[in-house]
## 1
Amino acid sequence: MLDLAIRGALIVDGTGGEPYSGDVGIASGRIATVGRAGPAREEIDARGRILTPGFIDIHTHFDGQATWENRLAPSSEHGVTTVVTGNCGVGFAPCRPGDRDALLALMEGVEDVPDVVMAAGLPWTWTSFPEFLDFLDQRQFDIDVAVQIPHSPIRVFVMGQRGVDRAPATPGEIERMAALVEEAIGAGAIGVSTSRFLLHRTKAGKLSPSVDAAEQELLGLAEGLRRAGDGVFQLIAAVDSTAADEYALMRRLVEKSGRPLSFTLVAEQLPNYPGEKDAWRVFRHRLATDQPAGAPIRGQIFPRPIGTLLGLDLSYHPFSLNPSYAPLRDLPLPERVARMRDPTIRARLLAETPQSDNLPALRMVSLDREHYRLGDPPRYDPTPDEEIGRLAARAGRSKADLLYDCLLEDDGKAILYCPSGNFIDHRLDAAGELLRDPNTIVALGDAGAHYGMICDASYPTFLLTYWVRDAAPGAGLTLPDAVRKLSAIPADAVGLSDRGTIAVGKKADLNIIDLERLRLHGPAVFHDLPAGGRRLRQRADGIAATIVSGEVTYRDGLPTGRLPGRLVRRGRTAAFASRTNGDSRS
């Protein structure tokens, strides 16, 4: 007797092969039969729907959320069944008690997780990274979680305040960092991560400890992977360098470690940085022609514009750093909207300029950015004539004046969209190029972070609608290719060979999707984090069911209450963990 049988689905198995109709049978958390399925304790009629492997996002920031919540939304609400966290060199382990404030300040600045949320939510029952994994290993989730050890906490753990202040590491300190990476991989970490990105700063504007670390220090992290003989390296490249130099560095890291490396790859022209224009094309060329022997380098890409969301109930908006806004900032939204409609306050805010020592924050509120109404359903490919500045010019108004009115729409709940990367010449052509590149991995959902300015974990729903169902003939992706990019390719990239395709013996992580009904709603604000913290969530229609380790975790977008997800330690499958680590229901 099977535990679960899914009958009559159009199976899109994640290999890139043609879809076919059939059943899938599940027993003990794994796929037992494909094609036909015998009697089962539970059955799902999937006729008229597609059946896919569970989706995998290798770039998230659930480091904190996984310690205080069981549901890893919004990723789990969009068919994602496995996430990798600990990206961008930030996280909470290893960490001594005296260094906690430094890591909180870093996560608040780099990943937009409010300090008050982390202070209320993080239990801090660990010091070492293996202890952090042990803590997560006792928890239950709606999806599986794999963790990387991040560079900045390693640096602070080894160097203390000198690490926070970005002092050069000594050879002895680099050796200790290598040992920590080796220890983490041995304990089950999926890899190590770092950031060289200049905009990764604390809220006070201080650079992340990892940003300008010397090459020898990065090679020390790679040495830790080499000694462990396992794991992956994740990196965000510097934008004040050339793509050729950054790629050469990544190549040296792979040659040192013998392990795969992936880095964030966005199509943008970076006019405000000293690095070259169109660096993304240089990276693509190097990926195609200059791969190191033994382990690949891949670009992590995103299928729609990289952008930020602004609003009165979000982290930033064009007037949020103006001096006269400070007394309004903490008022309840209805009261804030009422005050902002006062002509005197309006005139004062429109006459002021933003004030901050934090360069990234000033960039966020700059009127020089392109601003669009996002809407519901959300528009991620707006046309140039929809830009707020252009609308204002046609109406004979200033851009600031119209932006002010836009923010007050929908009783202050309106959301503005500022696309940047992957939106060259107001088109998604570059995103399409990156999607079709065989040396890229679809990722960058960033869930668990950027609670008040990004809601990108919905990208699987966007990809299946915009690039598959709704694309003009020849302009998008085939359904088999899209599913493979959401499942098998990211699974392979981080060595999760037990999932990502529909085949006998694989982990039973699956999605049943009504492709014709699939629809993405606009983001909405919820105040449901610890201490009443705010976050953006985004619903989808058309995902009939999500299954993790053979258990239905979502039906028609609503959670069932089942929590079969577990920590995935490298070298131990989550399916095994779910059978040996207690009951899987909440």
Note: The longest strand covers residues 2-11.
## 2
Amino acid sequence: MKRIPIFLLFICSIISISAFAQLTSPKAKWTYSFSKPEVKKGETVDLVFTAAIEKDWYMYSSDFDPDLGPMLTTVSFERNNSFEVVGKLKPQNPKTKFEEVWNGNVKYFEGKAVFKQTIKVLTDNPVIKGTSEYQTCSNVTGLCVAGGEDFEFKGLKVAAGTATAAAEQPVNAEKTNPDSSGKIESAAAVPAPANTDSTFSKLSENTSASDNTTEESAAGGSLWGFALAAFLSGLVALLTPCVFPIIPMTVSYFTNQQGGKVKAFVYGASIILIYTLIGTVVSRLNGPAFANFLSTHWLPNLLFFAIFIVFGLSFLGLFEIVLPSGFVNKMDQKADKGGYAGVFFMAFTLVLVSFSCTGPIVGSLLVASAGGEVVKPIIGMAAFSAAFAIPFTSFALFPQWLKSLPKSGGWLNTVKVVLGFLELALALKFFSIADQVYHWGLLDREIYLAFWIVIFALLGFYLLGKIRTPHDSVLEKVSVPRLLLSIITFTFVIYMLPGMWGAPLKALAGYLPPQSTLDFDLNKRSAGVAAGANSAEIAGKYSDLFHLPHELTGFFDYKEGLEYAKKVNKPVFIDFTGHGCVNCREMEARVWVDPAVMQRLRNDYVIIALYVDDKTELPEKDWYTSNYDKKVKKTIGAQNADLQIVKYNNNAQPHYCLVDHDGKLLVKPKNYDLNPANFAAFLDSGKEAFSK
């Protein structure tokens, strides 16, 4: 029998993710200091930005033609009344060279870059924070990587007294004021109003503090209440389809382990540790986009798809996944080393795979983490992952009990084969996410259903003993439990069959591709849709890429939808959704379809569906640099996700906002809620607020 070392699977997944992160990671380390340690109020001081650049890499300066092509180094400040920016960012002795790719002279630094920015101190305790944006390129490969990070200057002493009267007058000089594209403008230096930002992206230029009221922030509450909510969210996350494929992996792995109880608890602790680190530390460094990358990018999804196909085929008996023999011998001698490393890799795989579904659930935590909060995200992620870890720790303990049962070998092989069929079926979810996000059109709804119908039909025949795998013994008679399971399986197959021609299949809403991908839908052809005020044909932007469910009509561009709503004088229903959002599909299939909800959506609102994970690249003229993470937003999904974070202070999907014609919230937003009556009441409250 063929054997595949289990570490090859784990190492492949780790190397793929790590390599991608390494290629796109910044190549400079920044430090911050003052030109002098002490000043008087009203005096100026230079902020010194120093970057240590990696070997064989160089960084572009800030003082050459911004239209030439490369990304210039810029800094932007969180504006407040404690200091005033004077003049522009000043690079210290950059080098100059001609670059053919840009057809012009550029200024750059190698090894070390120093920039100075003059500020005027206005209070005794200036708060000096902001973000930097820069680009580094490799002298070896030519690869260029954009970077950016938050900065804060601390330790400046403000002596008693003030500067001379002349020094206290506004400085008639230029100050740095990056616009949304990252270019530097000039303006008279006057104190900026408190709690404002000098940069505004195209999508969020009308954002105000009152707009950022969300369900989560409005709720407030103590850390204990927040931790409890996070714990309950972890329990909900266990019901997502990305988690189910890990169950047979866990059972199979721990069945063959020694010292199961201790390792099971190590497994649970590793899940909590890794989840907390990924959710707080990594998100703080890379922002909520990291979770979106794990959830929707083709690389992790196809990698997970391949891994689960391999595990499924292994469970069916095609080959056996084992630890290397030499490693097993070492584990026998030093159990505390090798065995626990394998347990850690299992936990690491669980965390990575589950992010495809749990990333959106913990989106608010990731926003808080990337936005600067420390304690709250850590407590929230620890509570979330604790709920997540408890059942898997139990699964890790359970196989040890199975092994002690008499004559358990044949029965365990049957369980393993059943899990193998389930593994093959559930693996399709990962391929489906990538297929929808990138519009490949390879796994439409009917193809997906055809795979599932065949897989579960074969499972039913296996349970009846009509199919045997390599390790099965002859089944002389069918036990009652197997017969009952086969009945359930074939019932499930029959339930899926009408879905090939348009049946909604509500129970599988979160697992299947959208109804709009179905090529032949009898519902559309034989049942007319009730006409309403919102049912007129609307051919707006991206209508060739996206479709609303249940023959609803609406928009897929934020500004276009607001303009139309103003024209028809209706409130706006914004649906922040995603191709890979399981809960979004479930809400659409089980809540939107309710007659009371459908009537309100169709007649009372202008619908705007904004996909936050779509990878369709926009024309370069539509790109902009986000205020939130200072990164260029080039795709439909990136711009929609940035809008949700910046304007509505949320990163979870589904997220429903009822707004007026200016995009301001009418009522508190709503997330996942399967109660149609609650959702109808939510829509009524928005309509009432709009009428007032």
Note: Residues 143 and 445 are 39 Å apart (CA to CA).
